[in-house]
Structures are given as structure tokens and as C-alpha cells.
Design brief:
Helices cover about 75% and strands about 0% of the residues. It is mainly alpha-helical.
Length: about 160
């Protein structure tokens, strides 16, 4: 199971598609959160919360997670390696769990650099005002659960589709 997990992680980082999708996520989040003059801009909200970041990330995850994970099983079927995987001494449950865990870990790697947003906002706030850590932690827990659900749904549909 461990080898399947690391194979999937390598699959994500060996292709330029994974890097492009992750860079697009970071650029869109940075533009909406810091640079564009919208209602989601941190400087326009005048409070030390990142609700607009968490809402925007939840919407972006609906597109990013399927783009990253849709080829998981369908690429195995296209290349013909699914038969080799199924003949190995690994249970189907372990195969699915390893692929799902790789997708979840990948999105966690995406979320780790975004903790910097909270640090920057906490340092930009005037003396006596503090970042609402409860909302901050709760927002990341929510994004983590969205990651779990979206990756499981995507892997479910990836097992039915075959890329041409």
C-alpha cells in the first residue's frame, strides 16, 4: 500500500499539469485576497478574518481537486496497469485507500503555504487587535473536510471513466 501511495505522489509531481494547477490556485487566491479591488480583498473587509479566503478556496477546490485526481484510476485503465495492480497481493480496499490518501496529502501540501496568509494578517492588524484563531482554525478544518469529500467523489468517478 505504501508503494502505491508514493507512486501516486510521484505521479502528481512528475507531470507539469500538477504544478500548473497548483500555481493557478495560489495565483487566483493571491489576486482575489490581496490585489484585486473586490469585496473579498483583505484590505476592504477591515477585520482580521480570512472568511473570504476560505470561501474562495472551497469554490476553487471544486475545480482543482477533480483536475488533480481524475486521472488516478482512469490513467491506470488507459495504460493497462490496472490489471497488474489487481494481481498484486494488495486488496482493492488498500489500493483505493492509498490513492485517496495520496490525493488528500497533496491537497494538504497545497494548504500548508496558505498559513502565511494568517501570519500576514495578524501582523498587519493594529495593536490590541488579534487574529480570530477560532475562525482561522475552523476554516482550515472545513477546507480539510472539503478536501476529503471532493477527493473521494473524484476517485469514485475516476474508477468508472477511461481516458481516451
Amino acid at each position: 500500500m505504501r508503494s502505491i501511495f508514493f507512486k501516486e505522489i510521484r505521479f502528481y509531481f512528475n507531470s507539469p499539469t500538477g504544478y500548473l494547477i497548483l500555481c493557478a490556485y495560489f495565483i487566483v487566491n493571491a489576486l482575489v485576497l490581496w490585489f484585486l479591488d473586490t469585496s473579498n480583498n483583505v484590505f476592504n473587509t477591515q477585520i482580521g478574518v480570512l472568511d473570504s479566503f476560505f470561501t474562495g478556496s472551497a469554490w476553487l477546490f471544486m475545480f482543482i481537486i477533480p483536475a488533480l485526481c481524475m486521472g488516478s484510476f482512469s490513467e491506470e485503465m488507459k495504460s493497462g496497469t490496472i490489471e497488474i495492480l489487481l494481481t498484486k497481493p494488495v486488496k482493492i480496499f488498500e489500493l483505493v485507500l492509498a490513492k485517496w490518501m495520496a490525493a488528500v496529502v497533496l491537497i494538504l501540501f497545497v494548504l500548508i503555504p496558505t498559513f502565511l496568509n494568517g501570519y500576514v494578517i495578524a501582523n498587519l492588524m493594529p495593536e490590541g487587535n488579534y487574529l480570530d484563531l477560532g475562525r482561522f482554525i475552523r476554516g482550515y478544518i472545513g477546507l480539510y473536510y472539503i478536501d476529503l469529500v471532493n477527493s473521494s467523489i473524484t476517485l469514485y468517478y475516476s474508477s468508472f471513466l477511461k481516458l481516451s
